[in-house]
Write a structure and sequence with these properties.
single chain; 2 domains; 0% helix; mainly beta; Hemopexin; 5-stranded antiparallel beta sheet; elongated; Methylamine Dehydrogenase, Chain H
Length: 692
């Protein structure tokens, strides 16, 4: 099973002491399988789990028949009981019944911050702030028996002189991160490796993390220097470390560093980014990175942060980074901002990037503790689209939010959540500080499939008529238009703007709003307003943050006012591209067809010009096709890495093959169950080169 790191282990009111690591259970050969999730988890938490009565859950380990939990708590109750069972900092419960395990009773003297499967069956590592286990010295790290919590006698006391916050196992080597400078008798700077079975320190991981991120010796919060989290790629070759540091082995790697895991040594990579160099709320946090995790396929990792909403930074944000990226100024693929609230935890499956914290909204760029245009209510937990970083439709919520969701653990069966509050939903399901969302009841996210040529091209409002018609097209010349496609509700297609089809759904703008309906080429579903920015379950709920009476209601995205001027649109690879009346540029925003959320941030394709005359456009493979409003011609150019390239070539048009491509909206879509005729209108002349 894949283990997804939790986030900061300390309340936000406390100065962050940095050093953690994250956990991804890795073996060198072969690499483990991913979580294997075909759907998003269900929105209703399962019943079998106890109610932890105080503190915060920082660590969860699924050990098969039982679950082990660590944190800052002191007691727990079985579900349906008001009898408090004393359990300080660590407990176990039966996964099937949810009842507390009465045999597993290790006595630790301080918080447990991470739990990981041990080197042999029936054992687990405990990591954290503690110094003793069952009265025996085990400073910050111990290996205990699952049966009763007793320390494994053969595993030594490594006497770390600072916190151990996270551990990752790669093969039979344990990688440890924290704020320590010594482990056993070895000098180490926040990172160390040791034999997973014997506990003997080795020289595999010796990278030294140094210098405070925020504290400059005069101002700013001062906390321990070291690793906040670790995550390892599924193939066991890459280690990403986040935390309170500026340098790794004396080289600038501010708050984030990548290491290559070789056969004999872990070497600091040249990979670097400057996006975590700015200071964010230095008075409160010495560092602001809070969690990091690799995707199950290893193609990317995600970093989550706190830090207050400072423009141009990655504070209070979740960012995706490609594993294949190289260089010293790497930029994220996407960023999702909360608008002033903390992200604390990340858990990634094949279908979603789950994030936890105490945020109120996502897709809330440039906001300061309020809902800006594009803000979508997601109280404390959210599932993000891996392609775009925008929220999926999944929205169980968690209110009150408190400190936040401090741990997310992905297993093949679902998603565990650890926090400091008692409820899932708006006081809906009592789950004291630990809850499990099973795959049962979950649904696969909306398909992101698009069509390619040869295929159908659809015309909405061609010639000003309120009809939708289609013609088959192979990328060269077209055929005659079909008869109108019947619409059961008399949609005024001449008023449609920016239509595009993705994964079985037609999206289109009308009168400054986005609509959606299923469409298979012949049959339409019922049209529905796309408004993820307002949710009747949350709009009227008071957030208990910000201005008095503030509610979770979001704010309609600023793309909607642009819709009346949209002259063409298409979706590809998580992006919605569009053109605007009288503007020469090509614009795009992130888009998630699952929730219908449009990204709050508007981007311009660098170097793309000549779109002021656009009257529709679509992409197929490595080509982009553009309709001219002036001539009715259809031209094509190359399409590489999300941008047009090369010159435009006229493919079809009134003077080429007697086809006029103009309409209110032009888009590619599904092949009709009743195939169109394939005979082309004879060409009048061969295609000509067109300069723009």
């Amino acid at each position: 099973m894949a283990r997804i790191p939790a986030l900061s282990r300390r309340p936000l009111a406390v100065l962050t002491a940095a050093a953690l690591t994250v956990t991804g259970v890795l073996v060198a050969n072969p690499a483990p399988a991913g979580a294997g999730h075909a759907t998003v988890v269900g929105a209703v938490p399962s019943g079998p789990s106890p109610d932890i009565v105080d503190g915060t859950v920082f660590a969860i380990h699924d050990a098969g028949s039982k679950v082990v939990v660590g944190g800052s708590f002191t007691g727990v109750e079985n579900r349906g009981s008001d009898v408090k069972i004393a359990r300080k900092f660590v407990l176990a419960f039966d996964k099937a019944t949810g009842n507390v395990d009465t045999a597993f009773v290790p006595v630790v003297d301080d918080e447990v911050l991470d739990i990981l499967a041990g080197p042999t069956a029936g054992t687990v590592y405990l990591a954290g702030k503690f110094n003793t286990v069952n009265g025996t010295n085990h400073r910050k790290l111990a290996l205990v028996n699952l049966s009763d919590g007793s320390p494994v006698a053969s595993f030594p006391n490594l006497a770390f002189n600072g916190l151990v916050n996270d551990v990752v196992k790669v093969g039979n080597r344990l990688l440890v991160g924290g704020t320590f400078t010594t482990a056993a008798t070895s000098s180490r700077g926040g990172l160390v490796s040791l034999n997973a079975t014997t506990g003997v320190v080795d020289d595999y991981l010796t990278a030294t993390l140094t210098e405070h991120h925020n504290y400059d010796g005069v101002s700013g919060a001062s906390a321990g220097v070291g690793a906040e989290k670790l995550t390892v790629s599924p193939d066991g070759t890459q280690l990403v470390v986040i935390g309170n540091f500026k340098k790794a082995n004396g080289v600038l790697h501010d708050q984030v560093v990548r290491l290559s895991l070789g056969a004999s040594t872990a070497a600091v990579s040249t990979w670097n980014t400057n996006r975590y160099e700015p200071r964010c709320n230095a008075k409160a946090f010495d560092s602001y990175v809070r969690d990091v995790s690799f995707s199950p396929d290893g193609q990317y990792f995600v970093v989550a942060t706190t830090g207050s909403p400072y423009a141009g930074t990655l504070c209070d944000a979740v960012a995706r980074w490609e594993t294949s990226s190289t260089g010293t100024a790497v930029q994220p693929t996407w960023v999702n901002y909360s608008g002033g609230d903390t992200f604390l935890s990340v858990g990634i499956t094949e279908q979603a990037v789950y994030v936890g914290g105490h945020f109120r909204w996502v897709n809330n760029t440039s906001a300061t503790s309020s809902a800006y245009p594009g803000a979508v209510a997601r109280p404390s937990i959210a599932a993000l689209d891996p392609l775009s970083g925008l929220p999926l439709a999944w929205n169980p919520g968690r209110h009150p939010r408190g400190y936040g969701v401090a741990e997310l653990l992905v297993t093949p069966q679902g998603l565990w959540l650890g926090s400091d509050q008692e409820w899932i939903g708006n006081f809906q399901y009592r789950r004291g500080r630990i809850a499990f969302f099973p795959l049962t009841g979950g649904a696969a996210p909306h398909s992101t499939a698009t069509t390619t040529l040869t295929g159908n091209v659809y015309y909405a409002g061609s010639g000003g008529a309120n009809t939708l018609r289609t013609r088959a097209y192979d990328g060269l010349r077209g055929v005659s238009l079909s008869a109108p496609v019947p619409s059961p509700d008399g949609t005024a297609w001449s008023t449609v703007r920016g239509a595009f089809w993705v994964g079985g759904t037609l999206f289109y703008g009308v009168n400054g709003a986005l609509w959606r309906r299923t469409f298979d080429g012949t049959t339409f579903g019922v049209p529905k307003l796309v408004d993820p920015y307002h949710d009747p379950l949350w709009d009227s709920v008071v957030t208990d943050s910000g201005p008095e009476g503030q509610k979770y209601a979001g704010n309609t995205v600023n793309f909607y006012p642009e819709l009346p001027n949209v002259t063409g649109a298409f979706y590809t690879n998580g992006r919605l591209y569009y053109t605007l009346t009288g503007q020469s540029g090509l614009f795009w925003r992130w888009f998630s067809p699952d929730s219908g959320t449009v990204g709050a941030d508007k981007f311009t394709v660098a170097g793309a010009t000549g779109f002021a005359d656009a009257g529709g456009m679509f992409v197929s493979g490595s080509s982009i096709y553009l309709v001219s409003r002036t001539t009715g011609n259809l031209s094509s150019a190359g399409w590489v890495n999300g941008a047009p390239t090369g010159g435009w070539t006229t493919r079809s048009g009134p003077q080429v093959d007697v086809i006029d491509w103009r309409a209110a909206a032009v888009f590619t879509g599904p092949d009709s169950p009743n195939p169109l005729p394939t005979k082309r209108t004879p060409a009048k002349r061969t295609p000509v080169k067109k300069s723009r």
